[in-house]
Amino acid sequence: MLCVLALQNNLISQHLLQFKPYSAMKNFRSLILLLSMFVGAVPAQAQSDSTSKPATQGTPVKIGIGVTFGAAAQSFLIQGSYTFYSPSGSNYYYSFYRYAPVFSVLVPIQIGNTLRIEPEIGFASNTTENKYSAGTSGFPPYPYPPQSSKQTDTDFRIGLGGFYVFGQGQSLRPYLGGRVSLVSFNSFVESTIFSTTYSPTGQPIYSTSIQTVRFNAIGWSVAAAVGGDYFFAENFSLGGEIQFGYAALGNPKVEFTPASSVPTTTEYTQSQWQTRGFVAVRFYF
After folding, report:
1. Comparing 98 with 57, which gets the higher pLDDT?
2. Helix (H) and strand (E) counts for the chain?
3. Which has the closest alpha carbon to 242: 101, 70, 64?
4. Domain residue limits, the chain
5. Region 179-203: what's the mean pLDDT?
6. What are phi and psi for residue 37, nearest 5 degrees?
7. Distances (CA, A) of 27 to 4, 13, 37
8. Distance between CA 246 and CA 233 in Å, rounded?
9. Is 260 left (phi over 0), alpha (psi -120 to 50) or beta?
């Protein structure tokens, strides 16, 4: 470009030195032509400089929404005493869900090509129902009425995940990382049971009643996770994840209806390893 400008300036100087009145019109036309070439060359060079220097861009961030459906395998035991079957009190051992369906809402945040941060709000629920037929007891045998129990366990969680994503730009993108969660465990047990009184002749008289127990405890969990997503389009994926982690449950709050007639012991905590897996659909905006 400098050579072109020097050549143009040299030509302009020569034309100015050779300027004569009798050829003024001819020289004036030549000068206009050279000036137009010079003016046109400057923007062209500026445009070339601007295109040769790429614009500096920040780290791209994509935010999406996702849903999951899967199952969790774990068991939390609650230990204490109750008066359902004996006025003196008995031990009870109730467990929270073992294999429970899990539903979660995810907010995947993809930072650059490899880092994903993923807040999560989840819910799990499981119901177990047992029924016992009527039968006989004692000698001579006396009939007693049927019994039943129904236990509903729920799990609400708020968590955060962090992952390293491989295979950016490809359809299949594995990822590796972990999740931490704050969890609220709840369990409600309703039982139809019978009690026994005796007539003046010593014959047993059976009657039924409804008893309920309600548990609530706060816990936390941390888990290592591995998964992968298959991108059908750049903003839509279907994937799966497997977790292996550790969960701890704090001292539960226990309520009986009708109220227990003896003090209830609930100074009990439980922690254990757990597994969880789910299928996830994610959509990025």
Report:
1. 57
2. 2, 14
3. 70
4. 2-52, 61-284
5. 84
6. -65, -40
7. 21, 12, 15
8. 35
9. beta
Contacts of 96 (CB under 8 A, 6+ apart): 74, 75, 76, 78, 153, 155, 185, 187, 215, 249
Q: pLDDT tier at 119 (50, 70, 90 boundaries)?
A: very high
How far is CA 28 from its chain centroid? 77
Q: What are phi and psi of 83, to 5 degrees?
A: -120, 25
d(CA 166, CA 62): 16
Contact 272, 75 (CB under 8 A): yes
Q: How far is CA 32 from CA 28, 39, 211, in A?
A: 6, 11, 105
DSSP 91-151: EEEEE--SEEEEEEEE--EEETTTEEEEEEEEEEEEEEEEEE--EEETTTTEEE--EEEEE
- pLDDT at res. 147: 79
pTM (predicted TM-score): 0.66
R_g (Cα) of the chain, nearest Å: 39
Q: How far apart are CA 185 and CA 215, in angstroms?
A: 8
Architecture of domain 61-284: Beta Barrel (2.40)
Answer yes or no: are the C-beta atoms of 152 and 121 closer than 8 Å. Answer: no
| Alpha helices, H only, the chain | 2-17, 24-52
Tokens of 24: 């003024």
CA distance 95 to 74: 9
- Residue whose entry in the numeric block shows the structure tokens 């004036």: 28
The helix-helix angle for 2-17 and 24-52 (nearest 10°) equals 170
pLDDT of 69-89, one tens digit each? 998 776 655 555 444 433 344
